[in-house]
Give the backbone structure.
Amino acid sequence: MHDVPLTAYTEDGLSLIASKIGVPKLLDTYTATMCADSWGRSSYARALIEVQAGAELKRSVTVAIPSLDGNGYSKVEVKIEYDWEPLRCSSCCVFGHDDNSCPKNPQVNMGGDTEK
């Protein structure tokens, strides 16, 4: 997660942002230590988040940050980056293969015949 507002850079805040992506499982050790010790923050926060295979991976989420005076809020876009993205088929909505190698899609031979 990039561009996380300072006010949201806590375990609860990062968990809330992560819940807009999927099911938060844990924060990486470095990120959790920064949240617990309040000694600073990195330019990003790392978290393990379980996502649904049928859903598109989000590239950003918008969060509302309350203003310091308590009157209103401001919207902030947090950019999402993934360390690794598995092959994902848009036909089956499962991980492990892409559209070209989907067993549900017929394969066309050079001779024009189709195979299953």
